[in-house]
Amino acid sequence: MNNNTSEMKNQLLRMSGVNPGKCMKCGKCSATCPAYDSMEYHPHQFVSMVQDGNIEPLLKSESLYQCLSCFACVDRCPRGVEPAKLIEAVRLMAVRKQGGNRLSAEKVSQIADDTIPQQALVSAYRKYSK
């Protein structure tokens, strides 16, 4: 595993709080996933690929956006691996890698008005900044 891949893996593990090493590859998470048929990579594959450091294909996968974040996989996992949290962390990493779409603190006052909930601004700022 090269240095960049190792760094991405460590960042994903910090962001998600998931320990993919606990996965016993039983596939129960994928078996309960309501989006299984529309996903290129299934929840158990996300966990395995992150564990192996094979992150680049995940960042480019449409499966990131097929996940419903319903946490059915989290409920079903006998080892408490929490694949949905890992998928969300990969999704967040992909969004951050997109580049120039980051929200800067200086732009908040330009777009903020009384109709935008503060929670939306805080969420956008967190998502689009490093």
Please provide a written account of the structure.
This protein is mainly alpha-helical and 130 residues long. The protein is built from 9 helices and no strands. Helix 1 crosses helix 7 (83-97) and helix 3 crosses helix 7. It is globular and about 50 Å long.
Instruction: Decide which structural class fits the backbone.
Output: mainly alpha
Task: Give the overall form.
Answer: globular
Averaging pLDDT over every residue, what do you get?
86
Percent of residues in helices: 55-70%
Q: What is the N-to-C succession of helices and strands?
A: HHHHHHHHH
Could you tell me the strand content as a percent range?
under 5%
Low-confidence stretches: none
What kind of sheet is the major sheet? none
How big is the Rg? 16 Å
Total helix count?
Answer: 9
| Number of β-strand runs | 0
- Report how far the terminal alpha carbons are from each other: 24 Å
Give a quick precis of the structure.
This protein has 9 helices and no strands.
Annotate the secondary structure layout:
Layout: H1 3-16, H2 28-31, H3 43-52, H4 56-60, H5 63-66, H6 72-76, H7 83-97, H8 105-111, H9 118-127
Helix pairs in contact: 1-7, 3-7
Key structural traits:
single chain, 130 residues, mainly alpha, globular
